[in-house]
Design goal:
This protein is of the alpha/beta class. It contains twelve helices and 14 strands. A hairpin with a 5-residue loop joins strand 6 (169-171) and strand 7 (177-179). The mean pLDDT is 96.
Length: 377
Amino acid sequence: MISTKKIQMVDLKGQYEKIKDEVDAGIQNVINSTAFINGPAVKEFQAQLESYLKVKHVIPCANGTDALQIAMMALGLKPGDEVITADFTYVATAEVIGLLGLVPVLVDVYPDTFDINIEELEKAITPKTKAIVPVHLFGQCSDMERLMAVAKKHNLFVIEDVAQAIGADYTFKDGTIKKAGTIGHVGCTSFFPSKNLGCYGDGGAMYTNDSDLAQKLKMISHHGQSVQYVHDVLGCNSRLDTIQAVVLIAKLKRLDSYAEARNKVASFYDKAFANHPKLKTPKRVKNSTHVFHQYTLQLNGVDRTKLKEQLAEKGIPAMIYYPIPLHKQNAFKSDRNKDGAFPVTEKLCASVLSLPMHTELDEETLNYITKTVLELV
């Protein structure tokens, strides 16, 4: 039996309908004011996000990829410098490294959490290494306490890619709690519509507690100028427009409740698939909350392509994040990126499957999804 409801991987329409009046009024106010760029709502959102994250500076920008690029520019990284990141991630993380003439150094990840392997990371450090970009993949923080210790030991910058984990809390051994993205030198996030905090177009932000760095980030994102028509450095044009800020203001106040809804979905999936020999559910770590940007299973002894097709026939979408490791992409081919050098990532890319995950999933839909998966595997 096919579900009578159209199931979405991400139900942006259902989410919008619950905040429609607030969003529509805010957008209309922007149109009425014609303050489309750097309007009051941009500054309001910036201040609210700073308060939410408990961080000194938020610098909005045009998208998450720009955020990563601007961060690397502001930290003074030069062509030839090596930047370490995870092999198992979306291309944007490593793409900007190459675009700036830096050298992307890929390392494997842990098989249970999908996060960057700290032991492999430290092995990859050379005299040319200048920065680390941990990716808080699928909504859970990397092992930041250990990672920051390695970075301090080797005098390296840390740029957190927090596009999938905004709102997650990381707890240090001494009990200190910090939001994902506020632990390293700079955090970079995306407000792409499907993200946990998503706008209705493109958007992104950088955040830091370093006031000097914040000034550089702001300057670079605004054509390298600190005052109009005075260009101190080469920069770019990357800004969040006012309409997107209005949408983000409406969603930011609901971000924690969105995370709670996602965790309820994840718990339902966990319970349904518990101890199944062919389905490995995502591991939660003690020192980080999980905001479940994705709910990703690891399949064992299952024909993934066939399962995905069968689910689609029954009206259930599923996605593969990510089918090809970065080290196998033509853009990142090098002597060090050889087949077999990243066994965990290669295994994950061959076995992961993400199920629908969003704030609007109800119990009837979840029952249908889980029962169908169990019948097919």
